[in-house]
């Protein structure tokens, strides 16, 4: 079992659970536009690189800059959940350094947006992100379940990847295949099997208590 809040090895094609929260447990998403902006930053970072000089229009009509670095084909985002004062990612990186570069790029860009919008200064996140390396398939599946069950209303929560796993959305920059492929060899059974795995009130056979963020 990985040690709490630690990464023992940064390695190629490694799977990791990444999480962080707001400084002093403060909220980092205050309204719908904040969630959408963070999701758009993920989209820009994980999609094919846009043309130079392009800008991105979010729902409110504001313009925000594109993430400076692009991570398309360098990293897979397998699952995510954005909560008011923290977030969770499940990722697979192709090189030992791409995860750190990705997190620095996303969090710096979002912090600049947040500080400008709310006229604040200083750090937005509570130190460097936390990460745990995952070297067991069973553990990988249970972490995905933990991430998707984070909200109380996880079945209908808008700001997680669970809707993609149910086939309700098809987010191009999210890769559900490594998780869903573990649930059936028959394509039509993957989604209902995963939905049952996440939805059933069952006790985890492994200790996930060290992942719980105090709210």
Walk me through what this model shows:
- This protein is globular.
- The chain is built from 6 helices and 6 strands, in the order βαββββαβαααα.
- Helix 1 packs antiparallel against helix 2.
- By secondary structure, the chain is α+β, with helices and mostly antiparallel strands.
- The longest helix has 20 residues.
- It has a single domain, classed as Transposase IS200-like (Alpha-Beta Plaits), CATH 3.30.70.1290.
- It is 32% helix and 16% strand.
- The mean pLDDT is 86.
- It has a 4-stranded antiparallel sheet with strand order 4-5-1-6. The chain has a two-stranded antiparallel sheet with strand order 2-3.
- Sheet-strand content, in percent, reads 15-25%
CATH top level is Alpha Beta
Reported by name, the CATH topology is Alpha-Beta Plaits
* Number of domains as seen in the coordinates: 1
What would CATH call the architecture?
Answer: 2-Layer Sandwich
Q: Quickly give the structural class.
A: alpha+beta
Order of helices and strands: EHEEEEHEHHHH
